[in-house]
Specification:
9 helices
């Protein structure tokens, strides 16, 4: 069998080019639907109408009426998987904006170093301070999350580690095994000083397997969660975002907005995630 290594494997996984023997196709794996109360609430589209745009070479997704009711919007900076662009993730990026986040996405197709993800966060935060910008006074730059898929998942960790505390939580989705990280893309979960939620697909056994995700979870010290979505493969976060939307959104609402309903999925006496039958390999620690 021909070896598949590093960026080749990540590229194939992100673009859906691996043989069916490696990754279940979308037709063969029906993603579990959201059935739990909190998950279902945040799986639905949020209350904010969304608009999109560009700035500084980045893509923007945000509430159409910024700052309505005196709200300031937390920032989410996004990292694409290998050879992917924000156009591969319209469901997730628009969904987060509908829940009140100002989302900025690098257009780079290689985001493993995290430099592009961090630069995007810094760019949007600066717009919040610019009197000439529609974002002026409308953003909360003390509450910034980095999220990413595949190579961009590793990049989101690097971005947080290099941000000097600017990034306050991380959501790596389908984070790859370290052997797949190209030189310069290596990342250290043990160095994270902010809470992290690892999500992957239960059928993603080559790139982001249960053992791989568990290994990263065990290294996290500042609060962590992990879960694998049953029936999902490596690319189910693309396009509509599928059944990942609920808990990605709930985590960001919990960590960036202090949303008490969303918190119930991950913390408290009986966190919903641990009992949700649509997911497996769930684990939570050091979350309040």
């Amino acid at each position: 069998m021909k070896n598949i290594t590093r960026r080749q494997a990540l590229r194939a996984g992100t673009l859906g080019l691996l043989p069916a023997a490696f990754l279940a196709s979308a037709a063969e794996s029906a993603t579990a639907t959201a059935t739990a109360t909190i998950e279902s609430a945040y799986q639905a589209t949020g209350p904010w109408p969304v608009t999109t745009g560009t700035s500084g070479g980045h893509r923007l997704y945000h509430p159409a009426t910024l700052g309505a009711g005196g709200v300031t919007h937390p920032i989410v900076t996004w990292g694409n998987g290998s050879w992917a662009t924000p156009d591969n993730y319209p469901g997730l990026l628009n969904h987060l904006a509908s829940w009140g986040f100002a989302v900025i996405a690098s257009t780079d197709t290689t985001t493993g170093t995290g430099a592009e993800i961090l630069a995007a966060a810094q760019h949007l935060a600066a717009l919040g301070d610019d009197p000439a910008s529609v974002f002026h006074g409308k953003l909360d730059a003390t509450r910034i999350a980095a999220a990413g898929h595949s190579q961009g998942a590793g990049g989101s960790i690097n971005a947080a580690n290099d941000s000097a505390g600017l990034i306050t939580t991380v959501v790596p989705i389908a984070v790859p095994a370290q052997w797949m990280a190209s030189p310069g893309d290596e990342f250290s979960v043990a160095d994270l000083t902010c809470p992290v939620l690892f999500l992957s697909g239960a059928n993603d056994w080559l790139i982001s397997s249960a053992a791989t995700v568990r290994g990263y979870y065990d290294q996290a010290t500042a609060g962590a969660g992990m879960a694998l979505l049953k029936g999902a493969g490596h690319n189910d976060i693309q396009n509509t975002g599928g059944a990942f939307l609920g808990y990605v959104t709930a985590w960001l609402r919990y960590r960036l907005m202090g949303d008490t309903q969303a918190r119930g999925a991950f913390a408290g006496a009986a966190p919903e995630l641990t009992a949700n039958a649509a997911w497996q390999n769930q684990a939570l620690k050091n979350l309040v």
